[in-house]
């Protein structure tokens, strides 16, 4: 099998920032310089091991496919788990991914860091806020770690060139995390340049950023996107394969899958800083992504969740939605299957708060289901292909 | 919307002192239900293994978990339980309460002492072993070092009496253990027979089986650090709500004893192909799920699982192994009844037969059988049939 070489680079300090990265050499000889940039005050938490780079480059190696030769130290427990990780993804997408071997120059387990602190990925959305609040709320449940920090990743849904947008997002994320005594770690990375499509890879991408900080933390957490009840296993971050990115002394925890989305919204509703700075939007123009557009499906969904729970729309959503917008929104099949909107209707029914907008939502769901069925018809598919061919010509 | 557990009633779990009688050691626990009723749950195994029996209550908590979740009662354990296990079981409960909200509730588990058991000074692993395709494949692969970096130090197979063979069928179980011993001896593995009565706690065995298997293996924590549950379904055909699955099985682990769901990346036909290199397995494989449980030490060659396994061997061009006394005809294939979860297996058989260039009337019979069973499912799930079924049930 072909080979990809991975060389770790030394940490570089520039002003208040520090950069750690690696060189990835593909079998064709093409080289990629991949890096993670963060405030230098966190450099003591950066691992010397190549574990984060292996996780960040794995999908790339599996898609070529090429064995990953790592010119550095990799935790043997991580290599062990990555075997199973690859098994799962290559079973689900045999046309995209194959099993590859990870060949490290050295394979030695790290020593256990002397801390119970944990770090999470934090995008200011419902799932992240839920996990942060769950671990820090005064009447919390039995929790294994002290969740002390959240990483806001620049280069994932914030494109790297929009620095001002990211700076604005940092300010708001800091307000949320400060209020529960958590530290915000802003991190910029260009890992996305080698990771397409992101649907299956974003979990590994984000977890790679968590593992980079394994010297300072005992565990890494990632908030679940889908609940167990409507689990989509082949989504990039899921409770089955996320934990396979763990090593012996840095477990990865997929948190919150026992709760559905509307339960999570209800849970964080007594955290004013989170509600005021919640950011769920993924459709807005890239330079405006620090704020919610209040028009896309995810914004509308969150507004309706708040409305169903009888919670006043917080300032993080500048406008409310109209019935016309509810009727006109387009919902993907994945979102429909996840029953987010059924949960909204169920809660309004149980609260006896059904209204005109709930009827509009019901109608919108029927319309969207119909549209999906029509799109699936062979004749629609042929028509779409013909139109796109004509457009290309 | 409620988030904290609001159960009001409690089930008390009292560990029992082990007793030794006629070469067997019996240990267990008493469950005291909220109404005051008591149930004695026990595990019995040869006395020679008494040193391996844990002094902690982890296995008992696993054994009683679904009963507490079903009755919405907090589980108060009067013994020592691992804090890591307690954390894991919160997530485990979340999963089952999400999948079956009408059946299971999230409950609180309290323990008199929350402390980890000492880790055994060994790397040894134990696997549940029924003598079927999944457990044979796990044993063969690890013992022959075919699992690469995933190879475990698998030293023993645990054969359970009280699962598919009822406790009263002692001679049947003895016949099964004779076969299993031949299989495990050939791999230089220890056979540990264990009889247990957890099934009498009630509940749906399809959901509870993972916790029962985990309970029996973690009882032997003194001799092992890992308990292996061989996978039933592969990643490509995953049924996550099944009692053992790769999402929740590992949540039955404590810090010092891990439960591992093994070999999920292999399809059943890949497993059959691999164990066909093991002569003892071809002679003594046991897959049968016939109605008459007293005969389950032998393959009936007529139940769905027997027929499916015979077809798997046939589709790989391996013929009929000696563990099946009779072959099957196209008629047997067409009269099979199975639900939609099994259709995948039959499609795999057709695929394999194409790859192996093995064909015959039986391939057509499988196509027809899939078609018939799909129609049967559609009819069964139609609202009017469901209504009739429900009203008949009521009557």
Measured by DSSP, the beta-strand proportion of chain A falls in 15-25%
Structural class of chain B: alpha/beta
Radius of gyration of chain A: 22 Å
Q: Mind telling me the CATH class of the largest domain in chain B?
A: Alpha Beta
Tell me the CATH topology of the largest domain in chain A: Rossmann fold
Low-confidence stretches of chain B: none
Largest sheet of chain B: 10 strands, mixed
Proper CATH architecture of the largest domain in chain B: 3-Layer(aba) Sandwich
Number of domains of chain A: 3
Helix fraction of chain A? 25-40%
Beta strands of chain A, count: 11
How would you characterize the largest beta sheet of chain A?
Answer: 11 strands, mixed
- When the domains of chain B are counted, the total is 3
Number of distinct helices of chain B = 12
Predict the CATH topology of the largest domain in chain B.
Rossmann fold
**Greatest chain-chain contact:** A-B, 32 and 29 residues
Q: Judging by the overall fold, what is the CATH architecture of the largest domain in chain A?
A: 3-Layer(aba) Sandwich
* Number of distinct helices of chain A: 13
Describe the structure.
The complex is a heterodimer of chains A (393) and B (395). Chain A contains 13 helices and 11 strands. With 393 residues, chain A is α/β, with parallel strands linked by helices. Chain A has 3 domains: 2-106, no CATH class; 117-255, 3-Layer(aba) Sandwich (Rossmann fold); 294-378, no CATH class. In chain A, strands 1, 2, 3, 4, 5, 6, 7, 8, 9, 10 and 11 form an 11-stranded mixed beta sheet that branches. In chain A, a hairpin with a 5-residue loop joins strand 3 (17-25) and strand 4. In chain A, helix 1 packs antiparallel against helix 5, helix 3 (126-136) packs across helix 6 (261-268) and helix 8 packs parallel to helix 11. The two termini of chain A are 39 Å apart. Chain B is of the alpha/beta class and 395 residues long. Chain B has helices spanning 58-70, 83-99, 133-143, 170-186, 205-218, 268-275, 279-284, 304-315, 330-334, 340-355, 361-381, 383-394; strands at 9-21, 24-32, 38-46, 73-81, 109-114, 124-128, 153-161, 190-196, 226-230, 258-262. A 10-stranded mixed beta sheet of chain B has the order 5-4-1-2-3-8-7-6-9-10, sandwiched between helices. In chain B, helix 3 (133-143) links the parallel strand 6 and strand 7. The radius of gyration of chain B is 22 Å and the shape is globular. In chain B, 44% of the residues are buried. Chain A binds chain B through residues 79-80, 83-84, 87-88, 90-92, 139, 141-144, 227-229, 231, 233, 239-240, 243, 257-260, 262-263, 266-267, 309, 347, and chain B through 1, 3-4, 84, 86-87, 90-91, 93-95, 97-99, 101, 106, 148-150, 234-236, 238, 240, 246-247, 250, 264-265.
